Amino acid sequence: MISPYSAATMGAFLLFSQPTRVKSFSCTIQSNIIAFPSSHAAITRARKRHVFAASTIKDISHPDAQKRRFHSSKTKDNIRPTARFVAIAALSSGSSKKENVDSLAFAARRLEQDERYQRLEPRDRAFARLLVATVERRLGQIDGVLKRCVDKYPPKGKHASLLQATLRIGVAQLLFLNTPPFAANHDTVQVLRINHCLSKNSFPVPEPMIRFVNGVLRKLSTPAVSEEAVGVGGNEDNSKHTTLYGHELLKQTSPDDNIAPWLLERWERDWGESRARLIREEMMPSNNNPVSPRIDVTTKYSLTSLMESSNPNTHQNSRAMLEKMQQDFGDDCILLPQGSLRIGSSLTGDITQWPGYHDGTWWVQDASSTLPALVLTRALSNSRDGEDLSSLHVVDMCAAPGGKTSQLLSAGFGRVTAVEASERRSRRLVENLSRLNLSERCHVIVGDGQNYRPPERDDQILHGILLDVPCSATGTGARRPDVLRRSSDLKELLQIQELLANHCADNILSEGGILVYATCSILKVVTSLTWVYDLDAKEESEDQVTKLIARGKQNSKHASMTTLPIHPSEVPGFESAIDENGWLRILPGVLEGDLRSADGFFVARLIKEDS
Ligand SMILES: C[S@@+](CC[C@H](N)C(=O)[O-])C[C@H]1O[C@@H](n2cnc3c(N)ncnc32)[C@H](O)[C@@H]1O
Predict the structure, then answer these.
(1) What CATH superfamily classification does 367-608 receive?
(2) Full-model pTM
(3) What does the entry list as the binding residues for S-adenosyl-L-methionine (predicted)?
């Protein structure tokens, strides 16, 4: 049954959208395609028509009636931002005509920084986050549906980014979040009416444009006639109309549409068809699977609980503390084999309200991301026969936001120098260390790692370097869908990676010291990994390490680096990810059990030989 409300609104919509009435404009259904209002004249014509349409539908509870009530009953001062408003603001404020897609990468950050978002109730904040995350994750499919429904999508002109964000948020609700169509349409379109009251320097959105967005969302939420719904002889059974027209369009898209084609090709080429499929499924779940809620945290006890300590009490205490935290986080919190805690679905919302946040006992860090600090600590601990690490100095190169620095400090290193190029990110690093009460033994240096040298007066040995280079981050796509849309040009990153690796090996690390090179990339070069001396680094991980080792063999002026293979007992749960070189190569979706969803990562551990 179609409700009286939808019958009335559909009636008004169809009335408004008769193709014969206005040709150049818009909001017309032309073989299921809705056109965007373009010229000023068209808008003026449509305004006139709007008066006609609005008066015709006056008595039938059309949202316009509600809009008029809204305008008469509310003054500018008592209009409050809604979850949908802040989500649309976050998605539209960064978009430029050229960089519509890339700008979405920062939408979640813009949302968190928006004080109108901060003022929302926790439930509304959670909904706003879900809306932004769904658009970010399903962008390719959402735009695919809109392109099939709207002529000349994306919209152009002064309000283009606002209209586009509104359409995307509407489609996300209708097709991925199962929001009832009334709320998805009406409450989303309402944002266009209040936008100028809540946003600085913005003008009212012309009514025809609002009606255009309304028309598109209404069209997508029209019940579709599915095959089963049409009985023998073509008789329709209305009670079986469960899918929307938008769902029919969604079926013409694929979860792969949210991933850049070059990446899909590369995964298949680098890892073969079956592993590429597992990666894709992990990165981009099926249509009816909302945004993955997986969050792993590392605690101050995670790493020490795995270390063979000479003091059995320390070991037991760490283990006991971990188990206590597991209880605090709820029954569905899992202790992962390498010591991370995976938060269950019972703990949601603002993480600053979770148990232990303000005590500084834990930080968010993916399980895979804990491994570089773990294998560095293991190697240095083993070389000292398990004695404590308080006399050792290590450098965390490329340190912010500080997950690995915090691990190294928790492990008990006497001195940790954290080097970070970005001022903004290093402020976050300092804040994080301070919340975790770990600042004391840490020296934070803001600057390019290529210029860092331990102070000359410092005659101490530098025992280890953790080099977590900036990279394509393609292994983190399950949590950061923006990386799945990035460009294939990695030239600059490759250069920085190589320069930093060479500088660490040649100029900073002491002989006998350990260098751990890590990336969260899942790109690899296909050529064989034999020692080819004139190899150019074409990729971020295996290839860079191969080259670093090769240059030392080729020229005695360069540091001579050798692999210190990672042993299965050092990385519980990740044993099968150790490759033939003794390096860790983690691919999302490929490991068994709970670690199946761990981020993609690469970790190689090298030792600097005496010259
Ligand atoms: C992969 S992130 C590091 C994540 C960090 N290790 C952690 O676990 O929290 C790479 C970092 O390197 C920084 N970076 C980029 N180029 C750099 C350079 N030349 N020197 C030092 N840091 C750099 C980036 O700003 C970014 O914060």
Answers:
(1) Vaccinia Virus protein VP39 (3.40.50.150)
(2) 0.82
(3) 398-404, 420, 448, 468
